[in-house]
Write a structure and sequence with these properties.
This protein has 9 helices and 15 strands. The protein is an alpha/beta fold. The chain has one domain: TIM Barrel. It has an 8-stranded parallel beta barrel with strand order 3-4-5-6-7-8-11-14, surrounded by 6 helices. Helix 5 links the parallel strand 7 and strand 8. Helix 1 packs across helix 9, helix 4 crosses helix 5 and helix 8 runs parallel beside helix 9.
Length: 281
Amino acid sequence: MGSKVINIDNIQVSNSKPFVLFGGLNVLETRDLGLLVAEYFKNTCENLGISFIFKASFDKANRSSVDSFRGPGLDEGVRWLEDIKTQFETPIITDVHEKDQVGAVAQVADVLQLPAFLSRQTDLIDAMAKTDLPINIKKAQFLAPSEMRHILDKFESAGNDSLMLCERGSSFGYNNLVVDMLGFSVMKGFKYPVIFDVTHSLQKPGGRMDSADGRRGQVTNLSKAGLSQGLAGLFLEAHPKPDEALCDGPSALRLDCLQPFLEQLKAIDILVKSQPTIDTT
């Protein structure tokens, strides 16, 4: 299937080009940790010849419990992201939850992310579209792949077609998510790049009653399955000590596993994209 090419800095994102890694932390815990993780990702990706965009949230507004860690907040979080962008010369992607956050975040971020639970919020979509920045649209856990057409239409009608679609699993009863591999081809049919958020797809929402559980041990298996579908990018969260992470540690890759993990994923991506498409219709 053909795919639009979305340009982010000097990186081209397309279903037909080598996969791009959107990688980093779930949420900014401290400035120093953000810098450490960004440097590790940047150096590893440069060694392997993989294009890299750093991701982290400044606020996790949809946490399970009122006592859960949310992050440093807008002002301090954006400053930390700017420090990371400047020091490591890497593009930045981060999510916004309210339309009033968009202007400040757009001053630093190279890509804005529309959170899954908010992906049908028209006013937020309109504000994000008007920045003219590339947008990563998370597919809500309650939406079918085909329903993403309506969200694309909203952005396009607001004048922005620098769009990517991001799979992050679908609700499957209580405390569980599944990934529909056939859904990737449905979304690729819209001709926009498709990204696979593998670590959020490993979540078990509410699995710890006051927080999400996860299946970190299956991150390689699920990533391989996703990239076998010929995707534009992989969205991955890692942490030097996942068991001590302040958010979504059970789903995060251990940081020191990053290089062997990416070596395998790059090999699969090259193999899949070297094969001709077989028309079985």
